Amino acid sequence: MKKQLLLKVGLCAVCVTSILFACTKSNQTAEKAATADPISADVLKSISDLGFSTTDVHKQGDNYLVEDDILLTPANFAEASTSPNLRIAETEQYRTTNVVKSLPRTVTVSVSNLPTVYATAAANAVARYNALNLTLKFQIVSSGGNIQIIGFNEGPSGGYITLGSSGFPTSAGNPYSQIQMNTNAQAYGSNPNLGYVTSVIQHEMGHCIGFRHTDYMNRAFSCGGTATNEGASNVGAVLIPGTPSTADSGSWMLACSNGSDRTFNANDKIALNYLY
């Protein structure tokens, strides 16, 4: 997930197989990041085949950052979708090809080496999911959770700052195992707001259990900038029946945060109940 930085950087007061999503915030006046190394035509084709934009692709180690906030791993390029339900360019709720299986099920969540506000936010996010009485439950444990929340410290880059990142369920039906939360002061400020941090963890947990961004077909809806359609895809965007055919400004899975405590709206609950 990401959020727009409205002030210049330094003056700021205050989205097995895995695809990592980073919540970030945009800074219209921040300096652009340095130009990334050239990406080979074969890699760009693989990214396009997965249904992601090939504009501004950046290499990070063995992985590739696409669409500002999605990290594709080599394993992603090796797995294709077999789903017949793929739909593109509609403003509705979408899930990934892989979802959590073996329901009913309780997924444990742990927080390691992070300030107290992150642990409290994780507990609050878990409580929000459990209040929906889904067949998929969550439970906070002291360590070694099925989903482990850890920290990293990274400042703004290319007009955005990462708030958090996570990934998709494995092909075996297990939730993605890690959420990374940014402890840099320009992400949440020197005194992070509990509700705001809760909403980002809640969003990243959504990715871990198989949800894509609600506005993946046009990230400009929540992020601003140029409207972008990902085009034809063969993986990871399966329409969830019963969700709206118009833009949904309140969804917990929008690509960019508006800085508020955003939780489930009525359409989000429909999507969650449909899957779990």
From TrEMBL:
Superkingdom: Bacteria
UniProt-recorded Gene Ontology molecular function terms: metallopeptidase activity
Gene3D superfamilies: Collagenase (Catalytic Domain)
Signal peptide: 1-22
Keywords: Signal
SUPFAM superfamilies listed in its UniProt record: Metalloproteases ('zincins'), catalytic domain
Pfam families named among the record's database cross-references: Peptidase_M57 (PF12388)
Name by which UniProt lists this protein: Protease
Organism (species): Mucilaginibacter polytrichastri
Lineage, opening ranks: Bacteria, Pseudomonadati, Bacteroidota, Sphingobacteriia, Sphingobacteriales
